[in-house]
Amino acid sequence: MKKIEEFLESISFDKRLYKYDIQGSIAHAKMLTKCKIITDSEGKRIVKALKEIEKEIKTGKFKFNLSLEDIHTHIEKRLIEKIGDIGAKLHTARSRNDQVSLDMRLFLRDEIKEIAKLIRNLQKSILKVAERNIDAIMPGYTHLQHAQPILFSHWIMTYFFMLDRDWERLLNTFDRVNVSPLGAAALAGTSYPTDREYTARLLDFSKVVQSSMDAVSDRDFIIEFLADASLIMMHLSRLSEELILFSSKEFGFIELADPFTTGSSIMPQKRNPDVCELIRGKTGRVYGNLMSLLTTMKSLPLAYNRDMQEDKIPLFGTVDTLKGSLSLYAKMLDTVKIDKKKMLASLEGDFSMATDLADYLVRKGLPFRKAHQIVSKLVKETIKKKKDLDDLTLKEFKTYSKLFGRDVFDTIKVKAGIAARKSLGGTAKESVKRLIAQGKEIVRKA
């Protein structure tokens, strides 16, 4: 029945695996030849026909049929059409169960490499923005409240190191993806004298899955990738949220280039940060894909179950979303404009140098907790008087502590506060320059 065919089919989405299915089939044919399960001439004819089928699919000449369900059946049927019973020998010593797991691993292996490159490309864009704006000063926030002044370059380099963790996680996941399941057959292995290590070498896998049941029933490698992707999207979403805020009139710190914004359908003055908003929104879709596959796998008995066909749409959707988001982000950051004056002006009257005042008293010999209490009282009373720290006289400072001297006026300068934070990873210019140099070395080695 047509309705059943439509329900069972996966060709509408798994046809994108065609080159991996053919790649795996060629390796399998060569192994069958090596192990004398088929003859040399049979193996060569199979390999030649498979390459011709790949070309047919690539050029759009291949006919897909819903009744054949999946890409594996399509390719096998076409192979038999081209070379007859010899083509039917290809499925010896393998099953669709190990075949589909192989295809997914080959696919994901390539995609991880591509995504890792996109992460590095985005990191390069971050480095450029940080270097161009090395002197720009902005408020640092905690609880979305002004906390302490920082360099804009310090702020954006934070995302560089978030992405670096993402890159490392992906490469760790790659090691667990890069394991061959081919030869496990349906679940119990095969009675034929096969050589699984040989096919693993042909396909450039680092090793083989040891248990045949694990080989066909495992989807941990996909779940792990989806978790990695969720973290990457979470980092992009956090950056998006900050760029959305910083580009608003209330902040006015940055301006996003026109190609990455859209106008309002009714308000001609508006430019909406749609790319940032959509990346923030698509993060939920990627989280959903992770939860979808976790839920699918949570109660499956060993070994293969048809439920596992549902692994492909979450994986493909996540790969496409992630690659698109990373690619757009690099282009967007390359064109972002920073309003340094607006950033600096936003620090006026915000008392964000209060911690520096407390540190000043500590350097004069006061315990930090007492210094904190004194400065807290000073700030509260100064706010009540509708004054800023710059408005206070030395006499007024001394009413709170005799330790205050004329050098206090240098301490409350924003640039002095930033320059003082020379600790490893701090916001002083020389510290941020070290971060940028470290970042350049990281991407150079990749």
Secondary-structure map with pairings?
Blueprint (H helix, E strand, L loop, with lengths): L1 H7 L2 H4 L3 H17 L5 H19 L12 H13 L1 H4 L7 H37 L4 E6 L2 E7 H26 L1 E2 L15 H7 L4 E2 L3 H6 L2 H27 L7 E2 L6 E2 L7 E2 L1 H24 L14 H24 L1 E2 L1 H6 L8 H10 L4 H17 L9 H5 L9 H4 L2 H7 L8 H17 L1
Parallel strand pairs: 3-4
Antiparallel strand pairs: 1-2, 5-8, 6-7
Helix pairs in contact: 3-4, 3-7, 3-9, 4-5, 7-8, 7-13, 7-20, 8-11, 8-20, 11-12, 11-13, 12-13, 15-16
User: How many beta-strand elements?
Assistant: 8
Strand content: 5-15%
CATH C-level class of the largest domain is Mainly Alpha
Low-pLDDT stretches are none
Question: Helicity range of the residues?
Answer: 55-70%
Mind describing the biggest β-sheet? Answer: 2 strands, antiparallel
Give the terminus-to-terminus CA distance: 53 Å
Major beta sheet, strand line-up:
1-2
| Helix run count | 20
Structural class of the secondary structure composition? mainly alpha
> What is the succession of H and E elements?
HHHHHHHEEHEHEHHEEEHHEHHHHHHH
* Number of structural units classed as domains: 3
Rg computed from alpha carbons, rounded to a whole number of angstroms: 30 Å
CATH superfamily of the largest domain: Fumarase/aspartase (Central domain)
**Shape, principal axes of CA atoms:** elongated
Q: Overall mean pLDDT score?
A: 96
Q: Which CATH-level-2 architecture of the largest domain?
A: Up-down Bundle
CATH topology of the largest domain: Fumarase C, Chain A, domain 2
